[in-house]
Design brief:
The chain contains eight helices and no strands.
């Protein structure tokens, strides 16, 4: 029973969700950064043909798109460092941590993807417009800042979720391995399991008491019935 409870809290699939969070944070954020860089680069190249002196000034959308990949890298490294490998047969990484880390990776990755797409569209159209009217440069920068903020929101939430962690009851697992069916010594490792086993033991004793009282009464009834027939 205790082994089943430990397996439910810390299944072997928990690490899968954690590493999926690592992959999601890095891959989706890099997809957004790649799209923003490529889209903005096309606009800069088109504008640079007519106004080459403005090419370096309008490189800002490319830089802001590249920052999104750094967000994903930071979250991926933090989540990877929080995934504890198993110690022999005893798990150390719970399902609660796995789900939290998966959510953190998706928050950062998908937010970076959305921000990258916004930066790419704004950067492409913005640098072309600045090439024709330089007064639009400040407006383009403000729009890019608000687009970049989407990725920053995902980074903040991902950092908060990456700190969510639950410890597996490894002491219970070690007691089970050492004591076998010794329920009380295993339960002493964790108070919730102890109270559960005490209640189960009480129910078993009540059931045995009822059975012990029911058997003599049934035998007496049979004996009285036989006497009456005679």
């Amino acid at each position: 029973m205790l082994a089943q409870l430990v397996a439910d809290v810390c299944p072997s699939s928990a690490s899968f969700f954690g590493f999926m969070g690592v992959a999601s944070a890095l891959v989706f954020a890099n997809l957004g950064a790649a799209y923003g860089t490529a889209k903005s680069g096309v606009g800069i190249a088109s504008m640079g043909v007519m106004r080459p002196e403005l090419a370096m000034r309008n490189i800002i959308p490319v830089v802001m798109a590249g920052v999104l990949g750094i967000y994903g890298l930071i979250v991926a490294v933090i989540i990877q460092g929080s995934i504890d490998p198993p110690n022999g047969n005893m798990p150390k990484y719970g399902s609660y941590s796995g789900f939290a880390h998966l959510a953190a990776g998706l928050c950062c990755g998908l937010s970076g993807l959305a921000a990258g797409m916004a930066i790419g569209v704004v950067g492409d159209a913005g640098v072309r417009a600045v090439g024709q009217q330089e007064k639009l440069f400040v407006n383009m920068i403000l729009i890019l800042i608000f687009a970049e903020a989407l990725g920053l929101y995902g980074l903040i939430v991902a950092l908060i979720l990456s700190q969510k962690k639950s410890d597996c009851p490894t002491r219970v697992s070690s007691f089970i391995a050492d004591n076998g069916n010794d329920r009380w010594s295993a339960a002493s490792a964790c108070s919730p399991f102890r109270s559960f086993l005490q209640e189960a033991e009480w129910r078993r004793s009540v059931l045995l008491t009822r059975l012990s009282l029911a058997v003599p009464f049934h035998s007496m009834s049979l004996r009285n019935a036989t006497t009456f027939k005679i």
